[in-house]
Specification:
Layout lengths: L4 E5 L12 H4 L3 E5 L2 H10 L4 E5 H7 L5 E2 L3 E5 L6 E5 L8 E5 L3 H15 L5 E5 L12 E5 L13 E4 H9 L3 E8 L8 H14 L1 H12 L3 H11 E4 L2 H16 L15 H4 L3
Parallel strand pairs: 1-2, 1-3, 7-8, 7-9
Antiparallel strand pairs: 3-11, 4-11, 5-11, 5-12, 6-9, 6-10
Helix pairs in contact: 4-5, 7-8
């Protein structure tokens, strides 16, 4: 009997459609939950076979033989609502930046955007610990991600930027926040097909997901439904791949990712062996 495929995902609202009923569609999967940065660590250590990880962690893990599971992403082609930088001072005066500990992709995007749009490279970079409110931070600017970013009051700050909107305005390309990534050599068996089914079912039942999770997050159902079906994109098509390549190049220029990373996609071993 083959061992289970160890799959890690995030519990954030934005990821719910990607693994909706996954354990039912793929009984061979053992699904666990954690924050993005910890999932990346578990994939790197071999504790997971497949994980939904920040795109920057894929770029940093290519030398480990990481492979992108094709067609899936958490991406945005406009404002995303759940990844924001809140500043207490004008953008060009930011010297101390606090970065949400939950996602390293968003941390990197914040630094890229500040540098490219405002010529700002803060001299002090610190962590905003999980569970600590942006309002509690004394930094000049604070990156907040996930469900809690949608609840921080804008009026408490000098300015706010939705980083996905900022990226699209700067590059004209979608931004890819997360990917399903497999360790090289792992036999995914029927997992890609199960993921396709999960995503389809998740989006078909988006209103149900919004009704379940919206009130728990203090968000209304209509806003949650709009977020899942219009704000986010769960496809990894050519525009998203182009955006991911641009992100890789800009991150490398700041020393935040390796130079010259090539995107490697998973191929089923039985198909690859025929060619």
């Amino acid at each position: 009997m083959k061992p289970p495929i160890r799959v890690g995902a995030v519990s954030y609202l934005n990821a719910k459609p990607l693994y909706h009923r996954l354990s039912e569609f793929a009984p061979e999967v053992r699904l666990s939950m954690d924050v993005p940065s910890r999932l990346a660590e578990q994939l790197g250590s071999g504790e997971l076979d497949v994980a939904l990880i920040p795109s920057i962690e894929y770029l940093r893990g290519v030398e480990r033989g990481y492979e992108i599971v094709p067609d899936f992403a958490i991406a945005a082609r406009g404002p995303v609502r759940s990844v924001k930088v809140f500043t207490r001072v004008p953008w060009d005066q930011i010297d101390r930046l606090a970065l949400d500990a939950g996602s390293r992709t968003s941390q990197t995007l914040a630094r890229i955007w500040l540098d490219a749009r405002h010529g700002v490279r803060p001299s002090v970079i610190e962590e905003l610990p999980l569970g600590v409110s942006a309002l509690e931070s004394t930094a000049d600017a604070v990156l907040v991600i996930g469900d809690r970013a949608m609840k921080v009051p804008h009026e408490a700050f000098h300015e706010v930027v939705d980083l996905a909107e900022g990226w699209v305005g700067m590059t004209g390309l979608p931004f890819v926040f997360a990917l399903w990534v497999a360790r090289g050599g792992v036999d995914l068996r029927g997992l890609p097909e199960a993921l396709q089914r999960s995503r389809g079912e998740g989006l078909a039942h988006a209103h149900e997901l919004a009704a379940i999770h919206g009130p728990r997050l203090g968000l209304d159902v209509a806003s949650c439904y709009d977020y899942l079906t219009k704000v986010l994109s769960y496809d990894l098509g050519e525009p998203e791949i182009a955006g991911l390549r641009r992100f890789a190049a800009m991150a490398a220029r700041l020393g935040l990712a390796p130079e010259g990373v090539s995107l490697v996609f998973h191929r089923r071993r039985d198909l690859a062996s025929r060619h």
